[in-house]
Amino acid sequence: MDRKTIVAASLLSADFIELGKECARAADGGCDWLHFDIMDGSFVPAISFGGPVLKAVTDVSKLPVDVHMMVTEPVRYVKRYAELGASGITVHVEACKDVAATLAEIKALGLRTGIALKPATSVFEIEEYIPLVDMVLVMTVEPGFGGQAFMPETLPKISDIRKLADSFCPGLDIQVDGGINAETAKLVRDAGANVLVSGSYLFAAGDMSAASRSLR
Ligand code: DX5
Ligand code: ZN
Fold first, then answer.
1. Mean confidence (pLDDT) of the chain
2. Is 162 part of a structural domain of the chain?
């Protein structure tokens, strides 16, 4: 299947003082989605931002806002974040007591539904959820911080998921997140990923259009 690459700009690396302008820069720079990382200081050590900032972004953004929840028991927040304008919500398999119920709640709200796995989590742990989601997020760094180096040992998981999906969910989106730049983008695309999150590489670029093109 010929898949179009979707580029999602991770706002974690934006200049927060200029957040509105940074959202516009991503849209003008040819990005397809904004990626919004919510961290709770429990599932991951860091705390990032939550509902009020999400509302500010969805109020001004022309692009769909893809929420990545690095939060313990994210089901507590999905309804609220749907009301605040998220277009999709991805939860971590390691963070949910009842993964299927959490995914069903996201889907019932009419949002794109995603399941994420950390670098140390095996494909076996998410296999049963593939038919329930629009997207699998393969973390290519340890979740929690922007600007980390890509972990090449995650590549076989991307190709394993693509192979699995080809048999029963050919339209599945496979997202990667962490250390994505022009070089690593080629590796993950060749492995079968089609939704590329990039933070520090895109926002540090003087020319975001050229940077986003280099990921495709
Ligand atoms: C990390 C976040 C990422 C982060 C990626 O836990 O999920 O979205 O912003 O940043 P870069 O592209 O700099 O690795
Ligand atoms: Zn993320």
1. 97
2. yes
Rounded CA gap, 86 and 54, in Å?
Answer: 8
Give yes or no for residue 117 having a pLDDT over 70. Answer: yes
The ligand that comes nearest to the alpha carbon of residue 90 is 2
Count of domains for the chain: 1
Of the listed 32, 66, 134, 177, which one is catalytic? Answer: 177
Q: Which domain holds residue 207?
A: 6-214
Residue 163 lies in a domain: yes
Domain membership of residue 189 (yes or no) is: yes
Query: Distance from the CA of 87 to the center of ligand 2, in angstroms?
Result: 15
> What pLDDT was estimated at residue 177?
98
Q: Looking at residue 1, what is its pLDDT? A: 62
37 is catalytic: yes
Comparing CA positions, the residue from 44, 56, 47 lying closest to residue 16 is 56
pLDDT exceeds cutoff 80 at 2? no
Classify 192 in phi/psi space as left (phi over 0), alpha (psi -120 to 50) or beta: left
Q: How many Å apart are CA 41 and CA 119, to the nearest integer?
A: 19
Q: Which ligand has an atom closest to residue 180 CA?
A: 1
Q: What is the predicted pLDDT for the residue at 3?
A: 85
End-to-end CA distance of the chain: 16
CA 167 to chain centre: 24
Mean pLDDT of 115-126: 98
Q: Is position 1 within any domain?
A: no
The enclosing domain of 62 has a CATH number of 3.20.20.70
